[in-house]
């Protein structure tokens, strides 16, 4: 048994506690700046701090969120009154998390595919983040589906699964619960059947590699993408079909001892992100051995970011918009979300 086993088990359980999800706010500076630039928000460290503070200080965020995933810059920042973000998160009853991958880079010999990097010095970086107060980590691998049917290649799936497993083993050795995130991208015109096939192969290989690296399943959280038709596919699957295909794929590949499933939203609409999660919890709750919840970034943040636009006077209302998405997704994790909640909001 690893030195941190008991602590890791308790942390993993708390991350997916009933009615709670994980707040992904670990955008690298490049991604954050891209989202800011699209709205005319200055792409400076100062504005990134203000925005992350807006999220973390949204009143009673901890009612819905077990912990935020931070980025290296963010974990070193403080609120404007000088409270380190990590301490603010702990005082609010949440668990600080940290993204530790260094990004998905072009994969040599595999045009159009990416492999996630970040294993160099990872043991030391984990020790530093643990000492700073982080208790869980995240690493995202991306798998691309192409129109011709050539991608993903087997080499890409295998390399990314291997990276995820090496990362997860190092995290458990150093006291951080690994969030294992293999994202099958939604970009493209592929059908839901093709997404199911690729997600199935990807998850199967991820768990082969996790076993090989002796990762403890009850001390990790899986962050998968949903099984869904590509964004530009003309035949979009309905909510129940997405929920059924996703759960079918998870049941086939994910050991029952995994502490929890926390989905990414992956560029789905914010309403679909809630509706799909809700349908899984309404229709399949009894068949799932793990809690099924969310670890969304865009599907929680976007309405707040769109409203804020860098204007300090808009912070309180932006926080309310963020909290609404957190609340709705918390309801979806309990199977208690309904489209009526959206209509009430729109005043329909
Ligand atoms: C897939 O992205 C993760 C979940 O976000 P969505 O719910 O918006 O899909 C998210 O945690 C992502 O890993 C970070 O935003 C990563 O950003 P970088 O900058 O590393 O691509």
UniProtKB/TrEMBL annotation:
One Pfam family this sequence matches: Glycolytic
Signal peptide: none
Family assignment from sequence similarity: Belongs to the class I fructose-bisphosphate aldolase family.
Swiss-Prot/TrEMBL GO biological process terms: glycolytic process
Keywords annotated in UniProt: Glycolysis, Lyase
Lyase listed as a keyword: yes
Coiled coil (UniProt feature): none
Pathway: Carbohydrate degradation; glycolysis; D-glyceraldehyde 3-phosphate and glycerone phosphate from D-glucose: step 4/4
Molecular-function annotations in GO: fructose-bisphosphate aldolase activity
Protein name in the entry: Probable fructose-bisphosphate aldolase class 1
Catalytic reaction annotation: beta-D-fructose 1,6-bisphosphate = D-glyceraldehyde 3-phosphate + dihydroxyacetone phosphate
Taxonomic placement: Bacteria, Bacillati, Cyanobacteriota, Cyanophyceae, Oscillatoriophycideae
EC numbers: 4.1.2.13
Keyword Ligase assigned: no
């Amino acid at each position: 048994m690893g030195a941190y086993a008991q602590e890791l088990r308790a942390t993993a359980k708390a991350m997916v506690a009933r009615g709670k999800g994980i707040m992904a706010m670990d955008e690298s500076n490049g991604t954050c700046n891209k989202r800011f630039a699209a709205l005319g928000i200055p792409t400076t460290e100062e504005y990134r701090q203000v925005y992350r503070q807006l999220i973390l200080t949204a009143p009673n965020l901890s009612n819905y969120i077990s912990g935020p995933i931070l980025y290296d810059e963010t974990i070193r920042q403080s609120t404007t009154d000088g409270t380190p973000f990590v301490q603010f998160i702990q005082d609010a009853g949440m668990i600080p998390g940290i993204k530790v991958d260094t990004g998905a880079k072009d994969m040599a010999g595999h045009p159009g595919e990416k492999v996630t990097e970040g294993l160099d010095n990872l043991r030391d970086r984990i020790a530093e983040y643990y000492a700073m107060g982080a208790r869980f980590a995240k690493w995202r691998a991306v798998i691309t589906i192409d129109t011709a049917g050539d991608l993903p290649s087997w080499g890409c799936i295998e390399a990314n699964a291997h990276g995820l497993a090496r990362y997860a083993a190092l995290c458990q050795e150093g006291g951080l619960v690994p969030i294992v995130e293999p994202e099958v991208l939604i970009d493209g015109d592929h059908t839901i059947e093709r997404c199911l096939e690729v997600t199935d192969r990807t998850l199967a290989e991820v768990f082969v590699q996790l076993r090989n690296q002796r990762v403890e399943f009850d001390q990790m959280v899986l962050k998968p993408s949903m099984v869904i038709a590509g964004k530009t596919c003309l035949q979009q699957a309905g909510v129940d079909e997405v929920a059924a295909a996703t759960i079918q794929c998870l049941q086939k590949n994910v050991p029952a001892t995994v502490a929890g499933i926390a989905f990414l939203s992956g560029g789905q609409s914010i309403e679909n992100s809630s509706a799909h999660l809700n349908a899984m919890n309404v229709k399949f709750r009894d068949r799932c051995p793990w809690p099924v919840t969310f670890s969304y970034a865009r599907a929680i943040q976007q309405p707040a970011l769109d409203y804020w636009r860098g204007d300090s006077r808009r912070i309180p209302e932006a926080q309310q918009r963020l909290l609404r998405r957190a609340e709705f997704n918390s309801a979806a994790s309990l199977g208690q979300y309904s489209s009526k909640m959206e209509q009430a909001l729109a005043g329909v």
